[in-house]
Write a structure and sequence with these properties.
With 108 residues, the chain is mainly α. It has a domain of 63 residues. The chain is built from four helices and no strands. The longest helix has 17 residues. It is rod-shaped, with a radius of gyration of 26 Å. One of its GO terms (biological process) is protein insertion into ER membrane.
Length: 108
């Protein structure tokens, strides 16, 4: 029981192969959802676009290998686009439309 059961002649050194980056659904949704939020001026859609864009930015690797599919949109640009969608959805708060929301009382 004192001898070592491992065989040094059969030891194989581990070589790490990094996983390839792939375009996930979060990247696609993170790019298109801010556009829909700006067109619809929907606050819920714009906030969800911002959170999805932040998640996609935080999940992308720091040093990306060159993508064979072509150039992809940078993560900070996606986050900035989603932030612009949030600001666009709140333009009615900053610049209210005159006459909207006023009650018209008919004269008798």
């Amino acid at each position: 029981m004192s001898e070592d059961p491992r065989r040094p002649d059969e030891v194989v050194k581990y070589v790490h192969v990094p996983a390839q980056t792939r375009n996930t659904a979060a990247n696609v949704v993170g790019s298109t959802l801010p556009m829909a939020a700006m067109f619809l001026r929907n606050k819920v859609v714009s906030w969800s676009a911002l959170f999805i864009a932040l998640q996609a930015y935080l999940n992308e690797p720091r040093f990306k290998p060159q993508n064979k599919d072509g150039p992809s949109q940078p993560g900070l640009m996606t986050v900035g686009f989603a932030l612009l969608a949030v600001l666009t959805s709140y333009t009615d708060v900053l610049f209210p439309t005159p006459g909207v929301g006023k009650k018209i009382v008919p004269s008798v």
